[in-house]
Design goal:
mainly alpha; 67% helix; two-stranded antiparallel ribbon
Length: 233
């Protein structure tokens, strides 16, 4: 279904007009209003043949101005005869931009900025379960740190220190369970930040693609009630 058909069916098509074009139309309308107002004033002052001749000459001059403006507007003469809105399609294409096209251009610029940002700080998607797992493990690590901190502060004798060293000498089973949840193999350990980050990214994160998200209708708040598809072709 073409846009002219949609408009005939009463669908409210949204367009954007350039401010310079809009202001030019306003100036022309004000100018024409001034001419009509002046003609009405002169008509009211007619008292003799000389006044009438002056009115006719002024009306002729104003008519020439109106013709120049009409030619500049590029309104098809056919529209004056039949009033068919379809005859305005070329003029509409020259002066108006479909709202969907403006929104698409806006979204494209946002995606460009997102791609530029992603080159240094890539975005990822994490599942709810993986997120809760990581939060739980962080909480457990904080709790273990607090417990160990208090145990160290409680050490007053060499015997207490030896007992604490013995308790900490073996591998902590809770840490090994965290390793497995994070995606490490049984024989792997965390030896640096890079290894931990790479393992977590590979096991629990999915790269976020703004273009795919836009195709799926994610993050298209600008369109609101308007279709993201171009209905104006």
């Amino acid at each position: 279904m073409g846009k002219a058909d949609k408009e005939r069916m009463g669908q409210d098509m949204k367009y954007v007009i350039d401010s310079e074009t809009y202001e030019k139309h306003i100036r022309d309308e004000v100018h024409l209003y001034g001419l009509l107002h002046q003609l009405a004033f002169l008509a009211g002052k007619v008292k003799d043949a000389e006044d009438m001749a002056n009115l006719v000459e002024t009306a002729k001059h104003y008519g020439e101005i109106a013709e120049e403006k009409f030619d500049d507007w590029l309104i098809p003469g056919r529209y004056l005869v039949f009033g068919d809105r379809a005859d305005l399609s070329e003029l509409k294409a020259a002066e108006l931009t479909p709202l969907t096209a403006v929104l698409k251009e806006h979204d494209a610029k946002i995606r460009e900025k997102q791609h530029a940002a992603a080159s240094n700080d890539p975005a990822y998607i994490i599942s709810g379960s993986a997120f809760r797992m990581l939060v739980g493990d962080l909480f457990d690590l904080l709790a273990q740190y607090g417990f160990l901190h208090n145990r160290v502060l409680d050490v007053k004798t060499e015997r207490q220190l030896a007992r604490l060293q013995k308790n900490l000498s073996g591998e902590n089973p809770s840490i090994r369970r965290m390793y497995r949840r994070w995606g490490f193999a049984e024989d792997q350990v965390v030896t640096c930040y890079g290894i931990l980050e790479a393992t977590l990214r590979r096991a629990h994160l999915t790269p976020y693609d703004p273009e795919e998200a836009a195709e799926d209708g994610i993050g298209c708040a600008h369109c609101e009630d308007h279709s993201c598809e171009d209905d104006y072709d």
